[in-house]
């Protein structure tokens, strides 16, 4: 019998999405290979969150497609895409304990409460959440809530991880530590990862390359070094000059 495929052999993401939000049309096409996270950077209202929402299935496509490996997923509902999402405000279930937030995906797959909690245990341990397992989200710090959101997303064993400004709710004092911690978890995940951020420091720590989105269009893609060497727009130049934390 063939051995089961190791879970580290994760698929690539191919996104070619066009969406309309209010008056704005947003179009972006890019590929992300596993283990090489992509940061999406751009000014407020450029459409970064909309691109992630389109990939996740939370906003309908006007045109394009989303593929994960050989699977075309843009016709599937969000819960069948195998995409883990961590949004800027974490959106934990407020009435569920930390343990049951992390157990949520296993519960949705039809497991009993006790079986789902058993699945959650190693994730709670790995994310240093065991001591907090009985707390409600309102009783957590920003950094702790971020860990719960990440553990909940990864406990579902997603193929793709989408992070939308995961650090923006954190105090400046804890942000550097959390950035390093998040970088470790993203590396351990090893799958295709897209991170929306305003911060070149986040991009440097968490991503291999950067996609710049301005007014709904991709204006540049490359490593931070490539962007620095030849900024394609005034925004890219300003963004790199300002040391945004
Ligand atoms: N639910 C919505 N309905 C209508 N328009 C929306 C909606 N959400 C966002 N928009 C508009 O879509 C455009 C893109 O917004 P989006 O949140 O994707 O940008 P962003 O780059 O993530 O911005 P930010 O950095 O401020 O989070 C903006 O013009 C915004 O006003």
UniProtKB/TrEMBL annotation:
Q: Keywords assigned by UniProt?
A: ATP-binding, Nucleotide-binding, Transport
Q: Which residues form the ABC transporter domain?
A: 8-240
Q: Give the superkingdom in one word.
A: Bacteria
- Per its record, how is this protein called by name? ATP-binding cassette domain-containing protein
InterPro entries, alphabetically?
AAA+_ATPase, ABC_SmlMolc_Importer, ABC_transporter-like_ATP-bd, ABC_transporter-like_CS, P-loop_NTPase
Organism of this sequence: Agromyces tardus
Single GO MF annotation: ATP binding
């Amino acid at each position: 019998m063939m051995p089961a495929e190791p879970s580290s052999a994760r698929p690539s993401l191919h996104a070619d999405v066009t969406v309309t939000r209010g008056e704005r049309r947003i179009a972006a096409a890019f590929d992300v290979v596993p283990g090489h996270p992509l940061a999406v950077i751009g000014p407020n209202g450029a459409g970064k969150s909309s691109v992630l929402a389109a990939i996740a299935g939370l906003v309908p496509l006007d045109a394009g497609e989303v593929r994960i490996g050989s699977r075309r997923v843009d016709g599937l509902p969000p819960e069948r895409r195998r995409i883990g999402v961590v949004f800027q405000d974490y959106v934990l279930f407020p009435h569920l304990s930390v343990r049951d937030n992390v157990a949520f995906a296993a519960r949705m797959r039809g497991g009993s409460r006790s079986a789902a909690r058993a699945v959650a245990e190693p994730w709670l341990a790995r994310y240093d959440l065991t001591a907090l397992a009985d707390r409600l989200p309102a009783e957590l710090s920003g950094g702790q809530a971020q860990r719960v959101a990440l553990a909940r997303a990864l406990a579902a064993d997603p193929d793709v991880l989408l992070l939308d400004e995961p650090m923006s709710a954190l105090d400046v004092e804890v942000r550097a530590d959390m950035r390093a911690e998040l970088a470790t978890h993203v590396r351990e995940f090893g799958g295709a990862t897209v991170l929306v951020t305003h911060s070149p420091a986040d991009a440097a720590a968490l991503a291999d390359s950067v996609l710049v989105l301005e007014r709904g269009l991709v204006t540049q893609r490359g490593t931070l070094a490539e962007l620095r060497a030849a900024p394609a727009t005034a925004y890219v130049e300003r963004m790199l000059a300002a040391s945004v934390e």
